[in-house]
User: Fold this.
Amino acid sequence: MCMFGSTPCTLNVTSQQACLMEGKPVGTIQDMNPGANIPGFGMCTSLANPTVAAATAAALGVLTPQPCTMVPAGPWVPSSPKTLIQGKPVLTNEATLTCTFGAGTIQFISPGQQKVLV
Assistant:
C-alpha cells in the first residue's frame, strides 16, 4: 500500500520463479517495476505528484486526486541482504519502496506468506 494511494495492490513477482513459499514465488528487491510488479494504488493524493498538483491548482486549491503513476526511487529497502535468491536479496514484510513521483512510501500490509519452514 502507498500512503498516498486510495487502494492496495498485489505485488507480482517476476524477478525469479525458482524459490516458492506456500506455493508463491518469493519477492526480491528487483520486483519494483510499475505495471509489471506493482499495478498501482488507485488514485494518488500527493501534491508532490505533478498531475495531482496541476488538477488541484485547476480546482482552485481543492485536492483533486489523480490516477497513480508510481515511479520507484531505487530498489526496496531494507531487504534481507544475507538471504539471497539467485544472487538477489529477498523482500521481507518490513521492506519499503519510495515513489519519486508522489513522494509516497510503499509498504506491505500483508506479506502473502505466513510461515517459513527451513
